[in-house]
Amino acid sequence: MKPTVYIETTIPSFYYSDRTETDMVVVKDWRRDWWWEESHNYELVSSVAVIDELKQGDHSGKEDKLKLLEGVRMLELAVETDEIVETYLRHKLMPKDLSGDARHLAVASFHRCDYLLTWNCRHIANANKIGHIRRINGMLGLPTPELVTPLELVSENK
After folding, report:
1. CB burial class (10 A; 0-12, 13-18, 19+) of residue 143?
2. Distance between CA atoms of 111 and 104, rounded to whole angstroms?
3. Is 5 helix (H, G, I), strand (E, B) or coil?
4. CA-based angle 66:119:90, to the nearest 5?
5. In what order do the strands lie in the sheet with 73-75?
6. For residues 47 and 104, what is the distance between their CA atoms, to the nearest angstrom?
7. Is 47 helix (H, G, I), strand (E, B) or coil?
8. Region class of 146: left (phi > 0), else alpha (psi between -120 and 50), else beta
9. Who's near 120: CB < 8 A, 6+ residues apart?
């Protein structure tokens, strides 16, 4: 069985980013390389929370970003995930946005995903937060997915 990777909103967003700063172009290239060369090694999953975020606002490549997730299995937003989000917010794990980062972590944790793939290194893939996240998930009886960027899931066979 392949490890499960929860695709968070920043993955399709940066995949089709039109930013031209050098670091953003490099990040976009890494993400595209991972998607086409590495993602087949994993079972990709996401949620309606990601779709809803991508549909918000007026941004370039919106349809392409949504299309990238076609064929990716969508995980259920169970009632329990709302309770998990509330616990995260109460313990100040994530910003007080019920539909954002806390929701993604709650869904990935509840569904026991192996990885949560993101480019959000401030609120999610942040080494300074992982201990706190693990404590809260442990208190809730949940596993904590590995919080990673595409760079961390590149195979050694490249």
Report:
1. middle
2. 11
3. strand
4. 95
5. 73-75, 43-47, 4-7, 115-117, 146-148
6. 8
7. strand
8. beta
9. 8, 10, 101
| Domain ranges within the chain, ordered by starting residue | 4-149
Does the domain spanning 4-149 belong to CATH 3.40.50.1010?
Answer: yes
Number of C-alpha atoms within 13 angstroms, CB side, residue 12? 27
Residue 152 to residue 54: CA distance in whole angstroms: 24
**What sections of 6-61 are H helices per DSSP?**
10-15, 22-37, 48-55
pTM metric for this prediction = 0.86
Cα–Cα distance, 145 to 108 (Å, whole number): 7
Mind listing the pLDDT tens digit of every residue in the chain (158 residues)? 899 999 998 888 876 666 666 666 566 566 667 777 888 999 999 999 999 999 987 777 788 889 989 999 999 999 999 999 999 999 988 777 655 889 999 999 999 999 999 887 666 777 778 899 999 999 999 999 999 988 888 765 54
- Is 11:150 a contact under the CB 8 Å cutoff? yes
What DSSP character marks residue 21?
S
Separation between Cα atoms, residue 83 and residue 148, nearest integer Å:
24
